[in-house]
Amino acid sequence: MNKKSKVILLPCSSYREEIVYENLEIGLELLGGIEKIVKKEESILLKPNLLKKAEVDKAVITHPSVVGMFARLMREKGYQDLSLADSCGNGTTTRVIHGTGIDRYLEKYGIPAIDYSKGIRVEYPEGIQAKEFILPKELLEKDCVISLCKMKTHALERITGAVKNSYGFVYGFHKAKGHTLYPSADSFARMLVDLNQYVKPRLYIMDGIVAMEGNGPGSGDPAPMNVMLMSQDPVALDSVFCNLVHLNPEMVPTNYHGEKMGLGTWKKEEIEIVTPDGTITMEDAVAQYGNPYFDVDRRVARSGMWERLAKALNIFQKKPYIDPERCIRCGICVKSCPVPDKAVDFRKGRENPPVYDYKKCIRCFCCQEMCPEKAIKVK
Ligand code: SF4
Ligand code: SF4
């Protein structure tokens, strides 16, 4: 019988340092010890979700307490060569973490934050969707990566969890370009799977103590899910996240393609869920820790002819729109739009909110992701 993918589920309803620390320590023990995953002499990059500068309690970024207590644990276990970085959606690592508390923890545990300085083209002939990536020089210099992801909703992929967190490995503006190269949810998901298979993070730890529901990943609402999840299989981890929020995991493109392309499994019969009190079934996990009211897109996607027709006619497509009452005309959405001649722009002057040209829009939702005022929604 094939070995199951192990996902550690840690019930945790507080960001208090000692509670988070204790849970992370238990989680690593349940995985068989961090020493089995990463060698002491290796250089390790910690990769939190640092989408953009935002107040910590808005659940936009991986909580500082999770990042800080994991850093402490690694230091206490004797890991010397640790650093932290993300290719943030808006701003550099040091700018985004400034004042969040992550900066304070890094200082305390002597861990440098890296602002990526250069992108290097790497070829990946084995890739199914992506044959090359532009990755930061500083990332390529490390022996391994540990992903510290956040449990959030996402307009394009329904959720952003373990697999999607790896998009922050792509260097700078090449992230925006990636949306034009892989404009559909499926092609983007396949590229993400290739990326995970290229970089191969050794471990994924998900902060789901307070998740984000609704208009994620940047403008949703905090929703306590009271768990942390850990796994070396990012698809299995995301599948547990989906099950907990009553979303069919197969409907998430990164899960569907992740399983097909051999990154991991979303199938419950192939996942072993381990808690500090022992192994439980997916049904038990959902019954004990799930939330059927979590606001996430559970609609069944159209497929085949109907989808192609809807796309061709540009109807029944999800699209972003701006709430003029909330918009402060900052222009971040315009800057974030990867379409060369801008699908959203100040077509009626800077004194009015930007206006969409839906014929140009590729529905990547970067504008919605980066709007600092929650002014962009998807309908
Ligand atoms: S990013 Fe948001 S607030 Fe800024 S101009 Fe665009 S819609 Fe308005
Ligand atoms: S307008 Fe928004 S959703 Fe459309 S292509 Fe530009 S960033 Fe993407």
From TrEMBL:
Q: Which Gene3D superfamilies match?
A: 3.30.70.20
Q: Briefly, what is this protein's role?
A: Ferredoxins are iron-sulfur proteins that transfer electrons in a wide variety of metabolic reactions.
The protein's matches in InterPro entries, at most eight in alphabetical order, are given as: 4Fe4S_Fe-S-bd, 4Fe4S_Fe_S_CS, DUF362, PSI_iron-sulfur_center
Citing just one GO molecular function, the answer is:
metal ion binding
For whether the record's keyword set contains Aminoacyl-tRNA synthetase, the answer is no
Q: What is this protein called?
A: Ferredoxin
What are the 4Fe-4S ferredoxin-type domain coordinates in residue numbering? 318-349, 352-379
The upper taxonomy is: Bacteria, Bacillati, Bacillota, Clostridia, Lachnospirales
Keywords, A to Z, come to: 4Fe-4S, Iron, Iron-sulfur, Metal-binding
- Read off the SUPFAM superfamilies from this record: 4Fe-4S ferredoxins
